[in-house]
Amino acid sequence: MRMSWLFFSLALSACSPVKMPIENEYKLSHYGVINRHHEQGHKTILITHPEASSGYDTEQMLYTIKPFSIENFAHNAWLSPPADMLLPLLVQSVQKSRFFYAVASTTTSELTDYRLDTQLIELQQNFLKKPSQIDFVAKIVLSDVEKNRILASRIIEEHITCPSDTPYGGVIAANQATEVFTKAVTQFVITTLGKQ
User: Fold this and answer.
1) Helix (H) or strand (E) holding 63
2) Which residues, other chains included, contact 191 with Cβ-Cβ below 8 Å and sequence gap of 6+?
3) What's residue 4's pLDDT?
C-alpha cells in the first residue's frame, strides 16, 4: 500500500505543469581510498571534468518506474549535476593513493604524463527492483599524453541497493556507488600504468 501511494505521488508530481519548489538538495561526497605502501611516483596525471550523457547533465534527481522511462523527483535535487560533483571525488581518490607526484584537474595545468577522461552514462534510482537500487554507469579512458594514445578504457557499473524506497535512500546509495566507483577507477589507473 505504501509503495503504491509513493508511485501515485511520484506520478502526480511528474505530470504537474506547475514547477514544484525544491525542498531538499543533496551532494555526492564519498570517495574510495587505496592505501599504497610504496614510494610515491614521479608521474603526473590530469583528471578532466567528467562529461554526462544526454539527459543526465542536470541537477534533477532521476528515477525509473517503468522500462525506457526516466522521471525526476519533484521536491528533491542534487546541489549540482552529478558529473560535476564526481571531479573532486576522483581527484581525491587518485591523489590519496600516492601513486602520482601530482594530480591536476584543470586544463590550464602544466602538461602531465597521463590523462583520465570520464563520462557519466547513467545515474538513477531504479524502482523496478524491490527494494529500489541506484544504477550508476560510467566510462573511463586513460591516455598517455606524450604519445597521444589511449592506454585502456573501461565501463564501470555499480548497482547499489537503497536502504529505503525514498529519494534520500537513493542519495545514500548513490554515495556508496561513488565510493566504490572512485576506488575502482584509482585501482584501474594504478594497475594499467603498472603494466607499462
Assistant:
1) strand 60-64
2) none
3) 46
* Mean pLDDT on 167-180: 98
DSSP letter, residue 127: T
- Inter-helix orientation angle 82-96/167-194, to 10°: 40
Give the integer Cα–Cα distance in Å for 69 and 9: 17
Residue found under cell 570520464: 118
pLDDT digits (tens, 9 = 90+) for 5-30: 444 444 444 444 456 688 899 999 99
What are the tens digits of pLDDT across the range 97-130? 999 999 999 876 668 999 999 999 999 999 999 9
- pTM of the full predicted structure? 0.86
In this predicted structure, what is the pLDDT of residue 19?
Answer: 60
Q: How many CB atoms lie within 10 A of CB 192?
A: 15
Quote the CA–CA distance of 127 and 147 in Å, as a whole number.
45
State whether residue 139 is helix, strand or coil: strand
186 with 93: CB under 8 angstroms?
yes
CB 124 within 8 A of CB 64: yes
The amino acid at residue 55 is G
- Beta strands 60-64 and 51-52, pairing class: unpaired
Tell me if 182 sits within 8 A of 118, measured CB to CB: no
Q: Which helix (H) or strand (E) holds 186?
A: helix 167-194
Give the integer Cα–Cα distance in Å for 157 and 75: 27
Look-up of cell digits 573532486: 88
